[in-house]
Amino acid sequence: MAPTTIIRPSAGWLRLDLRALWAYRDLAFFLFWRDVKVRYRQTALGILWAVAQPASMSLVFFLFFGKLSGVPSDGLPYPLFVFSGLLPWQLFAFALSESSHSLVANERLITKVFFPRLIIPLAASLVGLVDFFFGLLVFMGLLLYWQAPLAPTFWAFPFFVVLTLAAALSVGIWLSALNVQYRDVRHAVPFLIQLWLFLSPVAYPSSVVPDRWRWLYSLNPMCGVIEGQRWALLGQPAGPNAAITTAIVVIGALLISGLCYFRRIERRFADVI
């Protein structure tokens, strides 16, 4: 008689079994590659869309913030300044948007196959790295155009890319789990991302925020992420500051609590979705 395998969900908030993610790494890569192909299938411009979006936003910010409003840019050419902020922001916004509705989008997969559900938002968030890579190539072209040297702190750049993904995933895990139960989340996410953009130092430096409100402003994890990536690419600001430390703490707290909540209600996904 063939042995019978019984799969039971583990109980508790902290039994995350993260080792299962590595065991199902092939599935994660399949989901990642599937989303990449679907994203650019039957498009006339293809991968150029990865460049068109940050370029068009940089132009709008340059005209309205740089020219008309005279927003400072910490001594850098304003297009270079704003594009260096849009690089991490576009990655964050895309990863947050895709991961937040990833579980609902993969409804049939969840109800038919057993695997760690955390793989779905994780794979969805990594798709943004393709656009990010091509955006980085455009940024290097802007450095050549303005004859601006790449900062010697570039060694820290990969760390802030990982931190950007961690920031998106820390919120995306929460929203993806909530979206299974409350479909209002899919309507709230675009509004949240749009509001978050103007609360982050993308089109303006964080130095314009009054000192008395700086502690509150730094609770936005993207403040430290964007400042850190500007420091890694351009050497500004002069070294990691308190905002980066605060961002790491806030992202860590959101990620741990999100994983615990996700694990807590994961067993009900197939029934509710």
Describe this structure in words.
The chain is mainly alpha-helical. The chain contains 14 helices and no strands. Helix 4 (78-100) packs antiparallel against helix 8, helix 4 (78-100) packs parallel to helix 9 and helix 9 (157-181) packs antiparallel against helix 12. The mean pLDDT is 85.
The biggest beta sheet reads:
none
The total beta strand count reads: 0
Shape: globular
Number of helices: 14
User: Which residues form runs of ≥5 with pLDDT under 50?
Assistant: none
Mean pLDDT: 85
Q: Which structural class matches the secondary elements?
A: mainly alpha
Q: What's the order of the H and E elements?
A: HHHHHHHHHHHHHH
Could you tell me the strand content as a percent range?
under 5%
Strand and helix map with partners:
Elements: H1 19-23, H2 25-40, H3 49-68, H4 78-100, H5 102-105, H6 107-112, H7 119-126, H8 128-145, H9 157-181, H10 185-198, H11 214-217, H12 221-234, H13 242-265, H14 269-272
Helix pairs in contact: 2-7, 3-4, 3-8, 4-7, 4-8, 4-9, 4-10, 4-12, 7-9, 9-12, 9-13, 12-13
